[in-house]
Amino acid sequence: MALRVRVCRLDEIVAGELRGFPVPGASWPVMVTRVDGEVLATSSVCPHEDVSLLDGDLDGPVVTCVGHGYELDLRTGQCRHDARLALRRYRTTIVGDELWIDLI
């Protein structure tokens, strides 16, 4: 059984911008963006060394961490530099005009 929580309103999600939203049950803000119309929600911390990705450079679905330049694909969670590293992704559900995610 999933633990579904509200993240934000859909109008708070901007294509091409990384936005962070505090969510009860998550240690770091949930990072949300739109890529090609798809709403993507992930952890906002780099799996390499606990650096915030909210200040990272977003190019399509790939965010580059400001800490060490690691590139992470927001669609798959995979790191382009180290296959052992993966960004936590959240399954999204749209309810009316709100974004909800499954924490577990």
What descriptive keywords fit this protein?
Rieske Iron-sulfur Protein, mainly beta, six-stranded antiparallel β-sheet, three-stranded antiparallel β-sheet, 9 strands
Describe the structure.
The chain is an all-beta fold and 104 residues long. It has one domain: Rieske Iron-sulfur Protein, CATH 2.102.10. The protein is built from no helices and 9 strands. The strands form 2 sheets. The protein has a 6-stranded antiparallel β-sheet with strand order 1-9-8-4-3-2, with no helix packed on it. A hairpin with an 8-residue loop joins strand 2 and strand 3. The chain is globular and about 40 Å long. The N and C termini lie close together (8 Å).
**What would the average pLDDT be, to the nearest integer?**
95
Shape: globular
Gross CATH architecture = 3-layer Sandwich
Spatial extent as radius of gyration: 13 Å
Low-confidence spans: pLDDT under 50, at least 5 residues?
A: none
CATH superfamily: Rieske [2Fe-2S] iron-sulphur domain
The percent range for strand residues is 35-45%
The total strand number stands at: 9
> End-to-end span in angstroms?
8 Å
User: Helicity level, as a percent range?
Assistant: under 10%
* CATH classification class: Mainly Beta
Query: What do we call the CATH topology?
Result: Rieske Iron-sulfur Protein
